[in-house]
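fwd from M.: "can u put these together and see what the complex looks like"

so here's what she sent:
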Amino acid sequence: DAGVIQSPRHEVTEMGQEVTLRCKPISGHNSLFWYRQTMMRGLELLIYFNNNVPIDDSGMPEDRFSAKMPNASFSTLKIQPSEPRDSAVYFCASSPGTDSGGYTFGSGTRLTVV
Amino acid sequence: GESVGLHLPTLSVQEGDNSIINCAYSNSASDYFIWYKQESGKGPQFIIDIRSNMDKRQGQRVTVLLNKTVKHLSLQIAATQPGDSAVYFCAENFAGGYNKLIFGAGTRLAVHP
């Protein structure tokens, strides 16, 4: 298995632009998680899905952030409009969804908003 | 950009020594714990896990200890190698049906030859 695949690896965008981050979880995993990592706040859970259904989005910072999972093999995290304080590394992770086994993380997307 | 950074605690050890990384978790109801290793430019990587009905679990060169009384978790790395240099995170799973891992702040391990 290729693991959790995220794209793009790096994204530089201007303030106010829309940004879309993409994630392909491991086949067969039915839980998917979006995390944001910054020096200030560490790893923060933004939202997670189980069987493509959003379970908890309490970590989403504000309405500018939205996430979708249209099918079991794809998820997006969208920021519209983007702001410089959104600059961070965004990780996607998936897990089997049972109560055992850790998450497998992707390599992350480094977002820079200028 | 960010002008103030989070200062991670750093553990410096000599190659070949044993390392102990500690973590305090927040929720007494958490029932599953994981240690992750994150190298520069990479995502966190699973190391070892432990359930709340256990006190100790061993892997290859790593041991996790769980003290539920004081909500404390530790990771022991035997014969630390330069390749062990990374940031280590503990994560706790909030009980309740779905895996929802909450991560600690992390500890940087620096291994010196």
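replying to her w this: The mean pLDDT of chain A is 93.
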